[in-house]
Design goal:
Rossmann fold, 8 strands, 32% helix, single chain, alpha/beta
């Protein structure tokens, strides 16, 4: 394993930690390249949760993924597409260094939780949107190849997590600018394959966020997998003692997500 850390030129307060499968003694293994996952910990666009960082990276790395943890910079707030530009810069940087980092540039997933599930999904639906690309200033290949969304903030309606949508939109609840950040309305047939999981009893981000995203994906014939688990609070992460929310029943989502992502990436060969 090789560990590296880097910042982004256009956002020096943003920090990425990476766990890479690197060169091995055998020539055959030295030539191998790995799929990648960019993990975006939650935090309501106000902080970055360590519970949804390394504990998530560990099983994906063990399953053969190069794992990148994005600790986005919120020093100037979340509005104006600021975190989204940082995630876009991260996926662009990983693709630019794919050869050096033994990474498959066309097998890169994004994984986000809670409000930053909204961030990951935003890149999946807005990667080529003219409003975003004008702010971002480039027209690179920014589309993720897959998305994994845990108890994500998606909607900007009566089921919204209003604080998160207000933070990212920079607008008050119920305004037109606020409603524009409901992501389910932007899903189309080019949206990446998506894995969603949520608990039905989530009191912070209602399960309807995942249900409405799944309905939009289904309507546009985008491959997806949806798991609604009956019990559990918001923010369960990997559902272990390490993160303070032990639940062997709910922890199965990690295994399911890895198998799903393997299947999606193999099918794209």
């Amino acid at each position: 394993m090789k560990q590296i850390e880097f910042t982004l030129e256009r956002s020096p307060g943003c920090h990425i930690s990476a766990w890479l499968h690197d060169e091995n003694g055998s020539h055959e293994l030295a030539q191998r390249k790995y799929p990648a996952i960019i993990i975006c910990p939650g935090g309501a666009y106000q902080s970055v949760s360590n519970r949804e960082a390394e504990p998530v990276a560990t099983p994906f790395f063990a399953a053969g993924y190069n794992a990148f943890i994005l600790r986005y910079d919120l020093s100037e707030g979340a509005s104006g597409f600021r975190p989204l530009c940082q995630l876009a810069d991260t996926i662009r940087t990983v693709r630019e260094h794919a050869e050096e980092w033994f990474t498959k540039p066309d097998r890169i997933a994004v994984c986000g939780f809670s409000a930053v599930g909204h961030l990951a999904a935003s890149l999946g639906v807005w990667y080529d949107d003219p409003v975003f690309t004008e702010v971002y200033g480039r027209a690179d290949n920014l589309r993720p190849d897959a998305m994994i969304l845990g108890y994500p903030v998606i909607t900007a309606d009566e089921f919204a997590h209003a604080q998160s949508i207000e933070n990212v939109s920079g607008s008050p609840f119920g305004t037109e600018e606020y409603r524009q950040f409901g992501l389910n309305q932007y899903v189309n047939d080019q949206t990446p394959p998506t894995f969603l999981w949520h608990t039905a009893s989530d009191q912070a981000v209602p399960v309807e966020n995942s249900l409405k995203m799944a309905e939009a994906l289904s309507r546009h014939h985008v491959p997806y997998e949806l798991h609604i688990l009956p019990e559990g609070p918001h923010g369960m992460s990997v559902c272990t003692h390490e993160v303070g929310t032990p639940s062997a029943y709910n922890a199965r989502w990690v295994e399911w997500a890895i198998h799903w992502l393997n299947t999606v990436f193999e099918a794209a060969l």
